[in-house]
Amino acid sequence: NSYNGPLVVDKTVYFIDEGGAKAFELPAEAGETIELKQLWTAQPKRERYYGSPVFHDGLIYAVTRFGDLSAIDAKTGEVVATKVVKDVDPNGQFYPSIVLAGKNLYVAGDQGKSVILEPGKDLKEVARNELEPTKATAVFEGARMYVRGRSALYCIGK
Length: 158
Hints:
Order of helices and strands: EEEEEEEEEEEEEEE
Shape: globular
Low-confidence stretches: none
Radius of gyration: 16 Å
Number of helices: 0
Structural class: mainly beta
């Protein structure tokens, strides 16, 4: 991947970038050479993916730099849902990785605006938030969310 990291779940590694999405079965043991078995390829939105994808309940979630969110079936590669979230941060790009915290997905743009969604095929919007601009990914610990802005570190929660 040129811009984001791969996602490893159990014995499968997933790659999502501007060339598409791919899944490979990892070998049981590492050796001097590793041969991967390709499981599937898919074509979500062809664009750069700066943030790394996230996995939940059999689906992989990934967002392009311009706010096109896809939910991909991890077993088949089928794109089962899409949602344009660009209106959340219309003047920005989506650099931070998607975060799964509690029962929700957090998708943030670099101008400090984010949308909170219920995972699944419906991708129902729960809320929107706004802080200062940042390209950092939020981190969750218990009931608290930490976000590094350009000028401050925020702790939101109990």
